[in-house]
Specification:
By secondary structure, this protein is mainly α. It has one domain: DksA, coiled-coil domain (Four Helix Bundle (Hemerythrin (Met), subunit A)). 66% of the residues lie in helices and 0% in strands. The chain has four helices and no strands. Helix 1 packs antiparallel against helix 2. The protein is elongated and about 60 Å long. Bound molecules: zinc ion (ZN). The site of zinc ion (ZN) has 8 residues, from helix 4.
């Protein structure tokens, strides 16, 4: 395996951007579905109120996780626009390609993410 170049090639950026946009789209519709679920009218005489509450908690947790990821994706897209995608937001060193492949919106390099 040849060494990866220190700066990501433009073609990689385009690939990551497409991935991020696709993920953002998926998350947005999932979050919308969760909100719709949460807003659905409740039947006050329902025997399953406890179960319903539990479901709401799960939905809210999913929503919170999704919103966090969505923010991270927005930030990554912003870094692409500013031309510093793939650079650690803490120490400024390049984030290794394997990490970006796994998590395209990762803001920190491996070392900083361990220290965080
Ligand atoms: Zn770092």
């Amino acid at each position: 395996m040849p060494h990866a170049p220190p700066v990501l090639a433009a073609v990689d950026i385009a690939g990551f951007r497409a991935q991020l946009l696709e993920r953002r789209q998926a998350l947005t519709s999932r979050l919308h579905a969760i909100e719709t679920d949460l807003e659905q009218a409740r039947n006050p005489d329902d025997d399953d109120r406890a179960v319903e509450r539990n479901n709401d908690e799960v939905l809210e947790e999913l929503g919170a996780t999704g919103r966090k990821e969505l923010l991270a994706i927005e930030a990554a897209l912003d870094r692409i626009d500013r031309g510093c995608f793939g650079t650690c937001t803490r120490c400024g060193k390049p984030i290794d390609a394997a990490r970006l492949d796994a998590v395209p919106h990762a803001p920190l390099c491996r070392g900083c993410s361990k220290a965080a």
